Amino acid sequence: MQNITIAIHGGAGTITPASMTPELEKAYKQALSHALDQGYQVLEKGGSALDAVEMAVVLLEDSPLFNAGRGSVFTKEGKHEMDAAIMCGKTLEAGAVAGVRNIRNPVRLTRAIMEHSDHVFLSGYGAEEFARKYNIDFAPEEYFYDKRRYQQWREVRDTDIFMLDHTDERKFGTVGAVARDANGDLAAATSTGGMTNKNYNRIGDSPLIGSGTYANNKTCAISCTGHGEFFIRAVVAYDISCLMEYKGYTLQEACEEVVMDKLVKFGGEGGLIAVDGNGKLALPFNSEGMYRAYRRGGQEGRVSIYKD
Looking at the chain, which terminus has fewer C-beta neighbours within 10 angstroms, N or C? Predict the structure, then answer.
């Protein structure tokens, strides 16, 4: 069990000690630690990487602290539109959703799409119909209401401005997890509520296989968080996998090339979590901070927010 590994993230951006109260920092760390420990326990008991990343992301979706699931931001219409994806590194099977409403845990819906359909990507009303067919839990609008999120939206709802989760922190709100299980299989999952005041059914990188989410046993598993338009244009997750598969880069080298060089050169801000087939981790980000945590077999977990 020495090579079982899991990493999670809860968003990246201008996250500094000055923008955080001690109480809020403690709450973030507790939520990250809980999701990490539960995901790790799945691996420790011999569970699959898919089960572990799903478990971790579900718990992050259940927390109002993160912009996914319950904590999703408000759209231009004052609603919640959520995106998510999951991918199996062993089979390259994947499931994804975009623009779904009232789904309690979008990541559970992506798993159902992957396992019970011939499709990868469903959106909107059709995805919700699929969710009903496979008994995915729904929740009323009140479940997704958060006073802080609502205030953010009220400040810009009558303008054409959209915000990256927070007005003052510039936090890119997404949650995700990657894992390697005892069999050496990899998996990745990502979930998000998108941008505050987003219009026109905007979709970011999180549900796009190869941009915000990717897993391949030959290379790595990746979940991204950042300004989605840039991550889409750079096809970030797949680019890292390709550098490893075709050019022989290590995981760390590939992540540094893409996140710290390629993205920076054309204005892309954010980060990602990644694990390779040997259980090695990389958690690069070019922003001020990234909510993140990881744990390897036989070791204690580590939770971080700011730059080390």
Answer: C
